Records
---
Amino acid sequence: MTASRRWEAADALRRLATVCAGVREGEACLIVTDTAADGDIVDAMAATLRALGASVVLGCGEPVELPGDEPPPALAAAMAHAHVIFELTSVFAGSSQARRDACARGSRYLTVPGLSWTTLRPGGPFASDFTALGEHARRLAERIDRASEFTLTSKLGTDLRGSFEGRKGRPLWGVADEPGGYAAPPDVEVGAAPVEGTATGKVVVDGSVLFLGPDQLPTPIELHFRDGQLTDALGPEAWRLLDAIERSGDDRMTTLAEVSIGLNPNARPGGSALELEGILGGAHVAVGNNVPYGGSVDARSHIDCVLLAGTLSLDGEPLL
């Protein structure tokens, strides 16, 4: 890491600490990381927090096997003593029970896995107006609250249809500054868990299968769903998702767990996974665990699959 790169990232790191997490002097902050994460970014984040007058503890383990797997027990236990938890790991763990327990105890939890210097660039996704985006995301979530049917479409051939009946929209806008808050900055998104057993159609994934390979797929993956279950995945890169489902040892991992759209206008391809997930005009679906989204399937993992462009419609009307 060069000194200039760290200097260029200083504003984004400070915004992550103050705007996104609301860190205050005297608070106890825990950075959860792993041996495959970028240690220079972890060190820079710790220095940023200390400069704000917070106390900082670093907890490092081996990377979890699959997105959403539980962290090591010692790290889960350490979460009980932190006001603010920053997940600066190489693999997403934000859907874990450990995270849910930490938030239930009142900790503020920021999941920022795979964070890169590119995403910390000046004028990048951390420069967005998270307050205004949050208001926008919450208004869109209210529309999902009232919706019955949804469709997800794209110019590449995506055509997925299902039900949001009775499901609450889930807005994430990068801010967790209240006790028990959860955010995934710089991802800004809104979506919901489709009603189990209702979604059928095709999804063409041209962005990424998050944390299971490159942040930009060289060729698209075609996912087929019937009655809320993944029935097939086609294309040279499809093995990434199919292999993860097989390794999970959990038959529930084929459940369509989430349908969401991105809302961050400063996000671009080429950054970290959560920047890709939050691209304005993009969309993503997930398979596996849908409990954090109001569903009933407590599968082992939650795997997001990103479309660089997609349109989500509610009862025939585009959400954006």
Note: The first helix runs from residue 3 to 20.
---
Amino acid sequence: MVEDDVRMAAAIRRGLRYEGLIVDIVGDGEQALRAVGANDFDAIVLDVMMPGLDGFETCRRLRLDGIWVPVLMLTARDAVEDRVRGLDGGADDYLTKPFSLAELTARLRALARRGPVERPTVLEVGDLRLDPATREVWRGEAEINLSAREFALLETFMRRPSVVFTQTQLLESAWDLGYEQRSNVVEVYIRYLREKIDRPFDVHSIETVRGAGYRLRKDGGT
């Protein structure tokens, strides 16, 4: 548990210990980074509002360091944009104060069952990188500007590289159900995407699988 309010931390630890959990407490983000780097934890309860590194930055640094312990953010800030920022920054769950200890315990059990599975906040395939939160794409150090449709298609490919997607699956991933489908719309947007992520860099990352659909090469075309 990362919590700078000593009384709050002690009360939560008593409750969690009563439920049979072993709880270590640190008071700020820097201590949290050191503790997680030196120990194996099943889950992290991370306060957002702390001196120095706040919870958002602490979680971001954990993920950048390749630490995938499930993180539950605990905070008095309940604005939607705060929850979105926390989840996009790598958190797995979000609970606002005041809260029920029973709910906190149940959420921790669920996170512990999930385990430290890699869930990168920025997708990388070869030298292609895509950030779903900021809607940015790079090939190496070069930033690439994509339309909303192009971005949605590329994100679909990058979440499952080497998987062949049919035209129907790609339509469902990038267009809403009310869209009046044209027979060649996917083909057109694949061509747009290739013109931006492949051709300027002299690579070939999106392959046509005849009679089946399209796939992104696992090496990103490099």
Note: The chain has a mean pLDDT of 87.
---
Amino acid sequence: MVSRDVESDTEAVLPADVPVRMPNLPYRRAITALEQVKAINDPTRSRILGIIQNQPATAKQISKALNMPPGTVGYHLQVLESAGLAQIVARRLIRGIVATYYTRTARIFQYDLPPEVAGQFSATMEIMMHARNELADALADYGEGMFGREGFPHARLSPERAAYYQQKMDELMKEMIQETPDQSGDVYGFFAAFFQSPRYMQQVDSAASAEDANLEITHPDDAHPERHDA
């Protein structure tokens, strides 16, 4: 829901010399409808949501950043606005033309779909795909030498320690998303996933079954002792 101060901004047209400031967005908004899923899953709309997450922007500004026609961006903004994911925060008079500025409706979106809506949809995989696409765009812009860190460690943990790391990750993400935007700084992405590794990586039962004990693994050459390759 749009806050009262945001609504007041949309009623008046700001003069050109008044800057459009980023409103204080809610920390989190739930994605609960299939319409919202379809809106956010489009790669172009995902990029638009990334742009307006930290700064208000017009369709023309977004089109320049994405190198696409303003009309196309305007259509995607309408889809996002209808789905409750984007909102108008200001209108500003620039050289006789009223420019409309958009932001997201929350700093982050959280999938919270009912089972009958979710079906086979995996929110986890969708988030990972968005992160992968954004990382690919960043690598195309800056190359492998860009500022950043990455890693994929594994550790065998007790349930208590697993819960500890889950909490630490949640706290770190919340701390970053609640940072006061530095208008002179750069935008950084932070993707993290803490999950139980697949079954093939889990410990094999050390107590071998009777069937396993009767198996003898041999080298292929051992079955033919007369064969010797130089």
Note: Residues 1-10, 222-230 have pLDDT under 50 and may be disordered.
